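## retry 2 of 3
previous attempt timed out at serialization; input unchanged, resubmitting
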Amino acid sequence: MPPPSDTSWPAGQPRSRYVKILGREMHVTEWGQAGSRPLVMWHGLARTGRDFDTIASALADRFHILCPDTIGRGLSEWSDRPDEDYCLDAYARQAAALIETFGFRSIDWVGTSMGGALGIRVAATTLAGRVGKLVINDIGPTFPTAPFERIKAYVGTPPEFDTVTALEDYFRVIYTPFGHHTDAQWRHMAETSLRRLPSGKITTHYDPAIVRQMFVHPDDYEQWAHWERITADTLVLRGVTSDLLLPPDAKRMTISGPRARIVEIEGCGHAPALNVPGQIEVVRSFLAA
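## retry succeeded, writing output
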């Protein structure tokens, strides 16, 4: 068990936690107070739990929030068995173990991109019947070919830069669809997403071997059978210009499985960053209903 949460800590301030999950150290950014409604927020493929800082701070008055760094990302341990550990089934087991470690009987879940795909997987398998509200941010139970091939091509070879500013400039290009609106948001993304290499160069904060999922488990994101098993109350967010969650797939999600409600987010592609008041309020209202 992790040490108990500090109940004197301000709800709107994060706490950095390290817990042993299935033999590996996982970093978790924790928000809110123990005893509040548990909420897990899981990030995208090459991102970290710090992506949720803004929305987690906004929801911390009502929820006890865990924002883990998936194994192989951020401050969590990297795997020496990438073909086994970097896939949705392994992440689903890690998620269930994390919930048990914190003593949660049931949870709500907000997942962006890979974290949304993982939400589908856990709600149908390792946490079936234990997910009350499920928010899936810009992904469906399938993965269109074009973005799949694009991600497979670049994730395994992260770029290197001389400076943090250069990394930030790179993020401003590749993550334009996120819909960040301020310099501060871009700077936050850079500062919570970097690691320094032995050469002194700056690169992104994940294990390049996470791309093995795309080669070893090429059908990992084909989840319509799992979708049909979900009973959680489900909200799906879709960036209006997203090429990862296509309109026909979003429509199918409203008439099959949990028959999700769909909200389209203007000014975003893949994936809405959930860091502006309008997007945060959509999530808050759904979780509170």
